[in-house]
Amino acid sequence: MSGSSYTGGTAAVSATDSIRERIAQAVNSVRETTPLAQSFTNFVTINLVANAQLAAGGTAAMSFLPDDIVDTAKIAGSTYINVGTLLPFYKDALADIARKLQYLGKPWVLDPVAAGIGKTRTAILQSFKAAPPTVIRGNASEIIALDAMWELGAPARADAETTRPAGVEAVDEVESSVQAAKRLARYLAQHAPNGKGAVAVSGEADLVTDGETVYRLPGGSAMMTKITGAGCSLGGVTATYLAVAEPLTASLAASLLYNRASEIAERESNGPGSFQVAFLDALWNITADQVAESRILIG
Amino acid sequence: MSGSSYTGGTAAVSATDSIRERIAQAVNSVRETTPLAQSFTNFVTINLVANAQLAAGGTAAMSFLPDDIVDTAKIAGSTYINVGTLLPFYKDALADIARKLQYLGKPWVLDPVAAGIGKTRTAILQSFKAAPPTVIRGNASEIIALDAMWELGAPARADAETTRPAGVEAVDEVESSVQAAKRLARYLAQHAPNGKGAVAVSGEADLVTDGETVYRLPGGSAMMTKITGAGCSLGGVTATYLAVAEPLTASLAASLLYNRASEIAERESNGPGSFQVAFLDALWNITADQVAESRILIG
Amino acid sequence: MSGSSYTGGTAAVSATDSIRERIAQAVNSVRETTPLAQSFTNFVTINLVANAQLAAGGTAAMSFLPDDIVDTAKIAGSTYINVGTLLPFYKDALADIARKLQYLGKPWVLDPVAAGIGKTRTAILQSFKAAPPTVIRGNASEIIALDAMWELGAPARADAETTRPAGVEAVDEVESSVQAAKRLARYLAQHAPNGKGAVAVSGEADLVTDGETVYRLPGGSAMMTKITGAGCSLGGVTATYLAVAEPLTASLAASLLYNRASEIAERESNGPGSFQVAFLDALWNITADQVAESRILIG
């Protein structure tokens, strides 16, 4: 998401691969059907999350009350939960909400912001193992921390207490999270009603995986790290696509939309203020083909 | 508020009607006296509410603590309460605040966002019947839901439990809310210290009523539905005008200001990012005459 | 901060004064080392605080949970606490957090927004006397109210209960707060591990003092009062500089950066919407020399 010239020894997805068609379809379907994605997200970037979902063509509803979240989940196509800023009473409430989403069979996106910092956040993230989301989107440090908390890897790494706190900025490179991302994606798929899940890791070259194939998405703009909420709003837009598409397609469509829009915004802006304005405009104006024709690497 | 070519068989308010003078006076008075309007509003759009109030010429203070809200209400010209995002402890706190505003004789604007969703919100909105606001601003679905909750209509409709949840987006047309809006406005007027109240319904052609006359305000921009907080900030600016004008004039002035500013912003922008920037600029630059000379239909 | 042509009979700091070098160094150091400043701040302007810190070159983390705040303080260069919008449970939590910051020896900036309004806020601000911040930034009314609450002046004034509430807008002129600002700065210095503290008062001509010397910073733009969060985000950027510089330099650098950037933004904008965009761009593009070569008056 933040500008790269990733050139690993991996194959490019062909121009005629069916995944491109599914991505274009997701982008268009959101614009045609304006699906409702609900968000429980942090106080910092909540406005950008909603505006990005609207600019992508969806409809937004932001909830904080447990009874609101469950009521709205019933009428929404998907839900986005971001643990960036928490209040004490969410410790029990969010675990309960995850169980209710599971019971309702509703797809949701988890953004494990700052995974590893704070006992309340750790307790909440651990509780989600029993009622997991459909998609997880985070930076490399957060994905590694969550994988360790859920003890999905080798026993030697499985002590969340000794995991280095991730903070809100990634301290790890995307590549170091590949195995954690695949393990998490397989775990999500195993627990999903339709057997499908995905994990997206934001970084110099974004990574998206369904647990089997690993897609790498080069490009984007480093200016995305100079506005707050780039990652959070990507999680929100992923939820918007998840309301109309399966997890892998939703994750790819959202990350590619963000990469192409941020490149346009960087060209048209003169600093972080005008960048954010141009970015929202680009989310609105970009075509489904521009998104679907992106360079995508496999492996 | 969202773009229309409403051409119902209704009469236009004449160019010399005294309501136009009162609207122009309200717009100018806010700019000259920078009145303080306090807001208790949701976490999503709070920043835009404050910025819109400032751009319209007023002064903003946003409060969440019950003791802050009551303390600030005493020195503010008006208060705005928006129930979009609630926390559990507001269930009792907001009912108590409404009683204190009533005791203090302070005018306030209610924005019943998502009326019908969530037990906590329903309990709060029902409690306001005993200590009602001066103005209510919402979309058609919210106005219909609130009228049903307060059981102001025929007994057959008066079961809030069976009311379809409104969500944050209107699922009803403005026209379907006319009777509910009139009943609510009459109820507000009956309980106001000065016998005056108003209800504003946002939609393709906004509707404003004091319970007797129904005003329809054609125009505006559909882009207002592509940024978050258009409705909330209109509620906030209505409170700003309510600090200097009576309820009907305040509601008309705010809705007309929004319609004209959104038309300017649509012409000058290239997507939702630049639209919001241009909209705030237009709120600041538009003249009182441009607002007061708007087309206004009656009946 | 809000535009002035202050021409009091005070001496100008010479072009070669070493303070200018330290200011330039702080501006550059933030851009080179992207230090993490943590914020506990209000819901209204939290997004602008984070974006301003990023635009100045720093890294932002916003926290609301007590355990998050303490955990993040350990890895952050500084912390910013703004009491603009509080929730009931912060009454005890913030006093405890201040004690932990003191125990950890971590520098922090206090923004006593609306000092004097609300019992909860007053209790919190009083509790900070025992574990004071490193820098205080506020408007004249807030600085006067806090000085009275902490009973630093003559006994006759030392009754916080009778202090006129400051509100969020200053009702006092900067000049009336000079003695209060100096007393507070000396108190902060006496209680700081390294013996240094500073107080910054925002107004027509900003004032910064370490308790001994009083610096006045003419210039800026009156448009800063027409966007919400100008003061809050200045507090946040002061914390960003406090992560790399001592209190006086950090306060001067932040206030001067804001004055120069707001002048540029005023020239390049057409209202409060485009002003905020241009302001964030200017924070990003302005040079350290432009900041350090500002006119600074002493005395």
Automatic annotation (TrEMBL), chains A, B, C:
Gene Ontology biological-process annotations: thiamine biosynthetic process; thiamine diphosphate biosynthetic process
Annotated catalysed reactions: 5-(2-hydroxyethyl)-4-methylthiazole + ATP = 4-methyl-5-(2-phosphooxyethyl)-thiazole + ADP + H(+)
InterPro entries per record: Hyethyz_kinase, Ribokinase-like
Transmembrane segments: none
UniProt-annotated binding residues for ATP: 137, 202
Binding site for substrate: 62, 229
Cofactor(s), by name: Mg(2+)
Gene3D superfamilies: 3.40.1190.20
Pathway recorded for this protein: Cofactor biosynthesis; thiamine diphosphate biosynthesis; 4-methyl-5-(2-phosphoethyl)-thiazole from 5-(2-hydroxyethyl)-4-methylthiazole: step 1/1
Pfam family for this entry, one: HK
UniProt KW Oxidoreductase keyword: no
UniProt EC number: 2.7.1.50
GO MF assignments: ATP binding; hydroxyethylthiazole kinase activity; magnesium ion binding
Keyword Methyltransferase belongs to the record: no
Record key words, sorted: ATP-binding, Kinase, Magnesium, Metal-binding, Nucleotide-binding, Thiamine biosynthesis, Transferase
Taxonomy, superkingdom: Bacteria
Function: Catalyzes the phosphorylation of the hydroxyl group of 4-methyl-5-beta-hydroxyethylthiazole (THZ).
Family under the similarity heading: Belongs to the Thz kinase family.
Protein name: Hydroxyethylthiazole kinase
Organism field: Bifidobacterium erythrocebi
Species lineage: Bacteria, Bacillati, Actinomycetota, Actinomycetes, Bifidobacteriales
Gene: thiM
